[in-house]
Specification:
2 domains; four-stranded antiparallel beta sheet; single chain; three-stranded mixed beta sheet; 26% helix; Alpha-Beta Plaits; alpha+beta
């Protein structure tokens, strides 16, 4: 029996099209997307994947210059995998956002410990990072 029930679709495109592609792919049934330095990784259940729909998307956003590669992914608990590979972040070398299983750093002013879950901000998104950076400029009392 084939236990590869998900497909990973690596999509290379112009960076300014990533956000709209994420929205479009979610409508097509893709369950999660991950921006990397080289591509957008999009995951979809194998039975609902359609090469034709990707081709139509590439035509719709011709200026994005979409290219993709599809590979099967063995079944695993993706939330658990993400949580296990969560990396701490530093903000201005004053804030460390980390999980309890990461080492503490006594040189930072603020040590924020977060139990990583997919639904909670970990500081990796630019807006969360910028808000943490902004908090360094605000008086912290009470």
């Amino acid at each position: 029996m084939d236990d590869s029930i998900f497909l990973k679709v690596e999509i290379i495109c112009k960076p300014e099209f990533v956000d709209i592609l994420i929205a479009e792919l979610s409508v097509l049934g893709y369950e999660s997307m991950l921006e990397t330095h080289s591509c957008l990784e999009a995951y979809i259940e194998k039975p609902i994947f359609s090469e034709k729909l990707l081709t139509e998307l590439a035509k719709k956003y011709e200026a994005a210059a979409l290219q993709w590669n599809v590979e099967e992914v063995p079944h695993k608990n993706w939330n658990e995998e993400w949580e296990r590979n969560y990396e701490p972040i530093r903000v201005e070398n004053k804030i460390l956002v980390r999980a309890s299983f990461h080492e503490a750093d006594p040189t930072v002013t603020y040590d924020l410990i977060i139990t990583p879950k997919m639904s909670f901000g970990t500081g990796h998104h630019a807006t969360t990072y910028l808000m943490l950076k902004h908090q360094l400029e605000v008086e912290q009392r009470g």
